[in-house]
Write a structure and sequence with these properties.
The chain is of the alpha/beta class. It contains 16 helices and eight strands. It has a five-stranded parallel β-sheet with strand order 2-3-4-1-5, with helices on both faces. It has a three-stranded antiparallel β-sheet with strand order 6-8-7. The structure holds a DNA duplex.
DNA sequence: GATCCACAGGAAATAGTGGCTT
DNA sequence: AAGCCACTATTTCCTGTGGATC
């Protein structure tokens, strides 16, 4: 009797969800200071007062969201009356304006659709105030990736003052803003800064040692047995992640991919080579995730840089990039945009880490300009773009 | 230390989306 | 069906910038 393909595979990971991005650990490691500060800011809720507004900032994967979820769990445990607080968490990436965020918050609070876009702003705000009032509790709004609101801070101005302005009476409002952009606070108007930033908590990147502690705990929970792990795998994952972003997510992603790689090759243990292989895979995954989010012209711009790279014509300045871009567009039967727009798309690509941008200045004999070059493996670009074609 | 290159990037205008109200 | 409303992507126009050169 023939064996099925499934029987051929060995399994190293027992609890896969422990290594997933949305996994919520039941204890938070290496963030004691932050938790203490956080608890201080939220303490008033337990005593029946309105909470401080909290603003968290730090790069991705340093525990901002995990700590926030943990704090809210703890808050519910601490409070006798479960109805005394209402927590609404949203991600501002999906609602990048005050207007849309207000709609989303109102609907989440009501747990049904009470408003939708198309109404004047004042109606939307009224609806939100009504919903807050209806809870008769302390409402905590968790606004993740708050920097996506940009300088549109009307909502952030309104909410902390809703009570003082008489829009609500029986309820309290607390804001928790989460941002991975340090510069975000500078864009805010001073009036908003004062109220939103009552308590600022900074999350610094994890160092290699801290990452090791975290990864150890996770690995123990996830794997069938630690015996399947070569010495140094956890150290290597931690070191690589610490060197790069200091992000726990990155360390865990690396680790998971390394385990998968070992499994696929029928190995009984995970080795450092698996980690090296995982490195390129994680990178490619990041690219494949981001490319579909680009606009058509963003992809064309990326294609243009890749084409130049292939012809060893990099680094190249914006003007030359525009020529490549125009040709790519025409080859795809798309009307090219103006060079000013290409600037913006190239800017995006640089921000996403797809291209590198160097500022040059040749003074009176050349002026100031940028030079671009590809910052990711050229193969990944073509593969990801091909992948898109097929869909 | 003034000049000046060649561009970056801000601001306003414009076109076009989807959704609502009357 | 016509008219708002909020919002996005783009174009057009223009001011600002940093350092090599004078």
């Amino acid at each position: 009797m023939a064996t099925t393909p499934f029987e051929e595979t060995t399994s190293l990971i027992e609890q896969r969800d422990v290594l997933r991005e949305d996994y919520q650990p039941n204890e938070i490691l290496e963030r004691d200071d932050e938790i203490t500060q956080y608890a201080h800011a939220l303490k008033p809720i337990i005593d029946g007062f309105s909470p401080n507004n909290v603003f968290l900032y730090g790069k991705t994967g340093v525990g901002k969201t995990a700590v926030t979820r943990y704090m809210i769990d703890m808050l519910y445990e601490e409070i006798d009356d479960g109805d005394a607080i209402t927590v609404v968490s949203i991600n501002c990436k999906l609602t990048p304006t005050s207007y849309q965020t207000a709609i989303k918050l109102a609907n989440e609070l009501a747990e049904e659709e009470v408003v939708c876009s198309g109404h004047p702003t004042s109606d939307v705000m009224d609806a939100l105030h009504t919903q807050i009032e209806a809870t008769e509790s302390t409402v905590l709004f968790v606004l993740d990736e708050i920097d996506h609101l940009g300088d549109d801070d009307d909502l952030l101005y309104d909410l902390p003052r809703a009570k003082a302005n008489g829009y609500i009476e029986d309820a309290d409002v607390g804001l928790i803003g989460i941002s991975n952009d340090y510069t975000y606070r500078q864009n805010l108007s001073p009036k908003v800064k004062d109220t939103l930033m009552e308590k600022e908590i900074k999350f610094s990147p994890y160092d290699a040692g801290e990452l090791q502690t975290i990864l150890h705990t996770r690995a123990e929970k996830a794997l069938i047995s630690k015996d399947y792990l070569d010495n140094g795998v956890i150290q290597l994952c931690s070191a690589l992640a610490a060197q790069d972003k200091g992000s726990a997510r990155q360390a865990i992603d690396l680790f998971r991919e390394a385990c998968d790689h070992a499994e696929e090759n029928g190995q009984t243990t995970v080795s450092e080579e698996n980690v090296r292989a995982a490195e390129t895979r994680v990178e490619r995954g990041r690219i494949e995730e981001a490319i579909p989010d680009l606009t058509n012209h963003g992809r064309l711009a990326l294609m243009a840089v890749a084409t130049a790279e292939r012809r060893e014509d990099t680094p190249l300045r914006t003007k030359e990039l525009y020529d490549y871009y125009t040709r790519c567009a025409k080859a795809n039967a798309i009307d090219p945009l103006t060079d000013r727009s290409l600037h913006d798309h190239a800017d995006d690509l640089a921000m996403l880490g797809f291209v590198k941008r160097h500022e040059k200045n040749k003074g009176r004999k050349g002026g100031k300009f940028f030079e671009y070059e590809l910052d990711i493996p050229i193969q990944s670009v073509y593969e990801a773009l091909d992948e898109m074609e097929r869909l």
